[in-house]
Amino acid sequence: MLRGRIRRGRGPSSVATDDDPLDAAQERRVRAVLALGGVPQADLPDGVQQVRLRLLERAASGREAPRDVSAWAAVVASNLAMDWHRAKRRQERLGERLAALRPAETAPSGEETSLLSLAVARGLDELPDAQRQVVVLRFYADLPVRSIAEQLGVPEGTVKSRLHTAVRALRARLHEDEVV
Q: How far is CA 109 from its chain centroid?
């Protein structure tokens, strides 16, 4: 049942196997949500596999397929990014020794990154998890407020409030850094 529903969204040029619940476009979207959620590049393949696994587990348990697999996968990816941040904070609390072993977060070598992109990324990192999640889902995964609210199980007003607060904080950060 799940496979048939997933397959309908695929185009004729898709090269995914019959066992892959995500098409190429959905996989790119999941990768983007994970990356924008702060998951390191090296951990992105594991995150994509986690989304696939959860989709397959859902099908195996007999639950109904999500109405919009792409939106569902983006929300799962966003939740995984939040989990990654929580785990990271737990590791940081283990002590100075572990913090000293972890390399400092800097721009990737060999890549030119604009000042604006860096400021936005830093601003996203400073947001609380719930605010970062709705910003990534709304502006990077391009989900409507209603869909975000449904997927997260919160009222639309809560999503709007979180977005408003997060955008205001990001705007203040960009002005503080004299980027805009």
A: 23
The answer to whether 136 and 148 are in contact (CB under 8 A) is no
The length of the chain is: 180
Contact 156, 77 (CB under 8 A): no
Tell me: the pLDDT tens digits for 110-155?
343 456 777 777 888 888 989 999 988 888 888 899 999 998 999 9
pLDDT class of 98 with cuts at 50, 70, 90: very low
Q: What are phi and psi for residue 144, nearest 5 degrees?
A: -70, 160
CA-to-CA separations, 146 to 76, 114, 154, 160, in angstroms, rounded = 16, 32, 10, 10
For residue 93 the two structure tokens come to 């609390």
**DSSP-assigned states of every residue in 112-151:** ---HHHHHHHHHHHHS-HHHHHHHIIIIIS---HHHHHHH
Q: Give the pLDDT of residue 5.
A: 39
Q: Which helix (H) or strand (E) holds 19?
A: none
Q: Pull the structure tokens for residue 100.
A: 């000293």
Of the candidates 13, 53, 12, 14, which has an alpha carbon nearest to the alpha carbon of residue 30?
A: 53
